[in-house]
Amino acid sequence: MKRQNGRMNRSFSMGRTSDSYTRRGESTGMGIRGVKESITEILQALPEGEDLASRELMRRVGCGSGVFYDALKELEQEGSLLVDRSHRVKSVQEPVETGRIVSLSRGFAFASFDNREGDTFIHGSQLNGAFLGDRVELWHIRPDEKGLSASVRRVLEKAPRLTTGTVQLDYGELVLQCDSAIRYPLPLLRPFPFRVKVGDKVQAELVPQYPGSDRMQAKLLKKYGSGDSARVCADAILDQNGIVVPFPEEVLRAAEESGSRPLTGEELAGRLDLRGTAVFTIDGADAKDLDDAVSVSRTRSGYKLGVHIADVSHYVPLNGVIDREALARGTSVYFADRVIPMLPQVLSNGACSLHAGTDKLTLSAILELDQEGNLLHYKFRKSVINSRVRGVYEEVNRLFDGTAGPELQKKYAPVRRGLNAARELAQKLERNGRARGTMDLSSNEPKFTLDENGVCVDVQPRVQGEAQGMIEQLMILANSAAAKMAGKYQVPFVYRVHGQPEQRRVEVLLDLLQALGVPARELMGQKPQARDFSAILTRVKDTPSEVLVGTQVLRTMDKARYSVEPIGHFGLALQDYCHFTSPIRRYPDLMVHRILTALCSLSPREKEKPEEITRRYAAVCATAAEESSRLEVRAMTAERSAEDCYMAEFMRGHIGEEFDGVISGVIRRGVFVQLPSSAEGFVPCESFVGADFDYDGNLKLYNRRNGQTLTIGQPLRIRVVSADVASGKIDFEPVE
After folding, report:
1. Contact between 583 and 539 (Cβ < 8 Å)
2. Which residues contact 440 (CB under 8 A, 6 or more apart)?
3. Are residues 227 and 201 in contact, defined by beta-carbon separation less than 8 angstroms?
4. 108: helix, strand or coil
5. Residue in 426, 523, 512, 510 with CA at minimum distance from that of residue 465
6. pTM to 2 decimals?
7. CB 287 within 8 Å of CB 310
8. Which helix (H) or strand (E) holds 102?
9. In 3D, which of 687, 555, 650 has the Cα closest to residue 229?
10. Region of 313 on the Ramachandran plot (φ > 0 left; ψ -120 to 50 alpha; else beta)
11. What is the pLDDT of residues 477-489, one digit of tens each?
């Protein structure tokens, strides 16, 4: 073997050295991927700027020369390292970011970033073994004409290789079309553990087609039933999102022990006794977890408002088995046919639920306001209540609009004065909110009607009446007061925050408004306020642009989340805000109750000092904020997926029918159309006969052949073409 300057004469771009050298050490059995990882780790461990001779690097890796030089060549082609003319090797120092694989198609994938918004394209050859859901290191991040592209440097954390999906037929073979963001069918591993047919909804484990392969196949684990049933699909959606339904036995035992015992005099001692106060609850007719009650009275100076929340922290000790389970769930999950509660039913629907006519332990916010609804004073006390009336939204709305009959009048007579005072106060609170710039961004939340077999037979938009708006205003005020309390004593807390929108998103909104002829730039300063966006919404109200602008304003906003930092709530235009009013169904509220309890203990002797509260709760508040934000997204994802399946089940009975709808979304491939029922379907561009559309990137499609434009808010008459329950997809076509 020839040498120059004491080093091996070898070209990494021209192939192998002599056969005798290539074969030496080939029996080590280390695969090329393992060799690449070892080379990368060794080079990254070197002090900055240092390199290694290739032979020394091979010695440290401990593999045969053939596989070593193949690996070295691949890494050099990937840009991971450099080899100079003297055959010294050094790592390429390039910025590395972390992210997660969020979509996987044949030949490519997309990854999200941990520390910035947006996705990046990854060619299949640059995945480096990463799969859907894996947390990865990304590098070679660079822009191209369609956005960012990147390569996977290495996999940091493998996601569970479980998925749900629907069995389908592909070229005569049964395959799995995954519910996850795997965009191509996977072959099924035989033999099957049970009989399956086309259309079955199943759960499967993803396994390599052969050892070391990146290609996956689906190993069937469970069959749910027919994918034509939304109820069956909802079962799969829970598993797909990792939402566990049954509680562990030890949690159920602890909840039964905590929630079944009667109240004792010791538990009531020192509590503010409000059993003689006209307290009432108002919830939906089918609600069972009643966690908030109110009492309102007029005073000489204005109003006295009591917001009385179930004292869940009394029944759920910190770090106990019930608490750990509640933290792991984060929130209750609501489907059309069921609720997956955060707490066992003996607590959520029993001991902690504020049923009328029963003594209940509560944590009360006692708020005093002036005649204009401005907060003058607040305090929080452990209390006991006995609700006079179990109110229902629809019934209270009938009281307010004058359509309630004698029976309803009689039911609400014990709290009618309080109801009237609450209505009057809520109107003033709403007016104050508008004055400070609260944005009214209403959503089209659907309400499903199921028959006795659990099949969706109707969908209608859920309408918020006056009673719903009244309770919402009172709860917002109590939430704000709770956050003020934490700020006053400078203790750890879990805040509900909604950040300042990014300037780049604001610019997109301003460009759209300019194109629509809506003057807005003079409203926006360097740091836009909530009232600026509220003013924009007011300018377009009752105009053809109202829906389009409202949608874009919503996209401009930051996402609300939980945080230990009190950065404020932009959308509500409040500096102090948290979630205090629903500890039965949200874990952050439970943590807030614990902090408030420490600040307002039953006796001065038991009251904790702020520094002691900080020592006890700083770490657990941080964990609660982070986990609850993540689990809230998980719950919302599952709820929306289930809604899509129930929507499709309903629309399946209307195939071929025509409806008048409104364009609710625009993408390059077509438009989404929402019907008055709130059902939404997709109209692809190719279904418009003779059209040739360009997408302007700003929620608008332009037909180059006739000048027609399609944008959000436009009416469009459609015909229902198909509705697939298993995927939740509904397809429309335009009625020419």
Report:
1. no
2. 434, 534, 537
3. yes
4. strand
5. 426
6. 0.84
7. no
8. strand 97-105
9. 650
10. alpha
11. 999 999 999 999 9
